[in-house]
Write a structure and sequence with these properties.
The structure is a homotrimer.
Chain A (H helix, E strand, L loop, with lengths): L5 H10 L1 E5 L1 E5 L1 H25 L4 E5 L1 E9 L2 E5 L3 E5 L1 H4 L8 E20 L26 E8 L5 E9 L20 E10 L4 E4 L7 H6 L12 E3 H7 L4 H7 L1 E12 L10 E6 L14 E9 L4 E24 L1 H18 L1
Parallel strand pairs in A: 13-16
Antiparallel strand pairs in A: 3-16, 4-10, 5-6, 7-9, 7-16, 8-9, 10-11, 10-12, 13-14, 15-16
Chain lengths: 352, 352, 352
Amino acid sequence: MSQDGGCYTWIWTCFFEYSTPKILLIRSRKVGAINRFIQAVIIGYVIGYVCVLKKGYQETDTVLSSVTTKVKGIALTNTTAMGLRVWDVADYVIPPQEESSFFVMTNMIITPGQNQSHCPEIPSATANCSSDGDCMAGFSDTRGNGVQTGRCVNYSASAKTCEVLAWCPLEEDVDPPEPPILAAAENFTVLIKNHIRYPKFNFSRRNILPHINSTYLTNCVFSRTTDPDCPIFRLRDIVSEAQEDFQDMAVNGGVMGIQIRWDCDLDMPESWCVPKYTFRRLDNKDPENTVAPGYSFRFAKYYSDGEVETRTLIKAFGIRFDVMVFGKAGKFNIVPMLLNVGAGLALMGLFI
Amino acid sequence: MSQDGGCYTWIWTCFFEYSTPKILLIRSRKVGAINRFIQAVIIGYVIGYVCVLKKGYQETDTVLSSVTTKVKGIALTNTTAMGLRVWDVADYVIPPQEESSFFVMTNMIITPGQNQSHCPEIPSATANCSSDGDCMAGFSDTRGNGVQTGRCVNYSASAKTCEVLAWCPLEEDVDPPEPPILAAAENFTVLIKNHIRYPKFNFSRRNILPHINSTYLTNCVFSRTTDPDCPIFRLRDIVSEAQEDFQDMAVNGGVMGIQIRWDCDLDMPESWCVPKYTFRRLDNKDPENTVAPGYSFRFAKYYSDGEVETRTLIKAFGIRFDVMVFGKAGKFNIVPMLLNVGAGLALMGLFI
Amino acid sequence: MSQDGGCYTWIWTCFFEYSTPKILLIRSRKVGAINRFIQAVIIGYVIGYVCVLKKGYQETDTVLSSVTTKVKGIALTNTTAMGLRVWDVADYVIPPQEESSFFVMTNMIITPGQNQSHCPEIPSATANCSSDGDCMAGFSDTRGNGVQTGRCVNYSASAKTCEVLAWCPLEEDVDPPEPPILAAAENFTVLIKNHIRYPKFNFSRRNILPHINSTYLTNCVFSRTTDPDCPIFRLRDIVSEAQEDFQDMAVNGGVMGIQIRWDCDLDMPESWCVPKYTFRRLDNKDPENTVAPGYSFRFAKYYSDGEVETRTLIKAFGIRFDVMVFGKAGKFNIVPMLLNVGAGLALMGLFI
């Protein structure tokens, strides 16, 4: 560097310096062809992978969604315990509303008229007894139904079990009825209203598409081939789309996923942004090595005549439908485009 | 390469070799200025975009959150069906607890005294009839209320419909009352307790900020201007912040989102990490081409006199509030800083 | 460039050109050693950080999960209000099913026999009065229990409060009982069935591992040391693993997180992909400056004798358990490997 004229001049000279490698130009068919091939690969990668496949020129956003569901349908049952009985939505959807999920009862074990009293425990390793000495007052087995009173009583003509303080009579320890009591649930329909939003692009849309009119909505049922835009689903269709059998699943219950995918390219016309529905069984149907297969829970309806409280215990088997909304939207934006194309060119600069 | 002295010497020589391009130094105002300008742009990009805007020197973590809510308020209604009646939280929040959501009933259609019996179906295309031949025993329309018995009976003086086995009397097919029955719900308040955690930084915080004392908490109500830190919200304020009218929304119901954003820069004082509340209507209020507008569901209260089970069916319209917690925290960490600054310098190296 | 022979020849020549910097070879121990050291650091970074630590050669996917829970256990209580009473799962799990969460009631304040009538308000700043003039008919305090009738009546021998129209008798404004009424809840167990899926790799697995048989499942209880694979958890163990005391927490209630982490390297044997359970208290237990500490809500059981509707109001304190499933799976894939190793080599190219 020139140092005549003091420090200031030196910095000035240095500031306007530019250093570049001396370049050797090779004119060779072989070397040149390889060079151009590598360049072509990189340009192909930038255009093909970054731009076309990954849409690197777009800014992306993930979906915000709200889901409401409404089940419709009537089932008639004829059981010895309850006689002829009609079930409607207030009877079989429990709890009546959830955030993005709904449960439809398909089978049940009903134990009516329970009240707080004493009765013999269901036979089991810890409950069987031959005399009062086998029972311990105050003991309660986690898998039992009540708290032992310390007495050993007749469960049946042949078996004696410890007496328990419990909601008596106890629920019978039986397998769920087959065929399921609410087998008619396969014809129930559910309307799923899904409203989505991409906050970054201030873009909203709902699964009742603009071209759908009210008349169509009151009559349609979703079908992948004939009615792919109808937001009303027959429960049997949801289950069979997931390669399962409704009547099989209804016996022990299970969990189904209703997946709604909104992948939108907002550089394209808005009408191309439509939901795609897929259905999948979420729990494990493999019956081996499983305790409590399927999906069930117990709930009770409480009655009182002013003095004694009685309840009807229902062990409800059924299908829980979880609605899951996924989605990613992209829209052209100069910043990600520059970043991605720049990175591609940098890569090219390295290999040339 | 020098190959005298065998393979070992060759490797040794090769190991201590360093190759660098021959550099051409250009002293030109024009070229130098362009060179420095490009360098300035890249340094500006690294400092401005990577460091300041994107905080590339920070390690980030996403929020883990737990939400509990508690609604308070009393409403008095005077209807012909029920007379003067007071509603409290156990009456209008259904179900009584959910994970990060709560539903407040604002309007309803009540059908008391239903029991399993026969009655004429509500008139519709499939239910209207002129003789028994028009009705099919055992047929149940998905949109109907019961299972047809095969008889055609008088619905009113002028209309005949098929008789159904159902919970009778049937719910009347009417629009929800206007003004809404629980119009007073606009004055209800909700306390939202939100506890967040950034597991990577072992950082916890809650939306009841340290400077808030108990006396303030028992009296305050959130207001963006005067009380931005109070975690108690009046329902009307939530709805009006989202540019909606509570009384309009209360008629048919809807879904509101309560968004809590915790964006924390943990290199800054902890007291700067405060929640930001925003409110948004999540469902679609557009009334055209929509079946079942708003948000409603049916539930029942069951009674029994020991022999006959009766129920009160309630079609509940109301607002579901979904509490959504977002957030990202960043804290200085040497690894992402090196990676980001390194990538910036590499970019600079390419273009110099 | 050679321009004899026209434009076509020029392009042809240009296409097969390759330019490379002239290289200066320096044979110096010092410079060579520094050069090799930098190369070693970069290679170490690529191999150590990118390949081993970050597994940059793998494609990753995040987990899809479904959770079902089943609580078991019996509690015996002896209170003046209800006498000897047994509680089972239908009594203390409210609501009976939720998506990935369950609530177990541990303590309560019961107010039986409420009906719509008049009674004096609980004393408070807005409810205390000395004459009818202090009460305003129709006024309802958000934190009160009813709508004032405008009369001032005796609350007790010493205090007068405004009369309200409400569900009377009112719930007493007392602290939750200590010890908690359902203290026995610490021995309840919960079976958590978790089925996960990595959709990109079509890989499914459940937390009941293949080597577990049915006999083991009916008897085991999770223990970090002796039974780390058992999916049945004692509630007390969950709470104490989070360094909390169950009986303390049971008084006011709280929120517990059950975290299940599935981090799977699918290049390894499938049997290495096992869930890891961790437990954490999610709400804030700090009792200072908090309104409504813990977790509680009110619900009611409704009864009717055909004319008058009565209800039992229960303020339920308890623990809400949120099951959270996390996870990331990785599997070798050529594309991310090339991208990551390529970026590493590019970095190396720059610094050599």
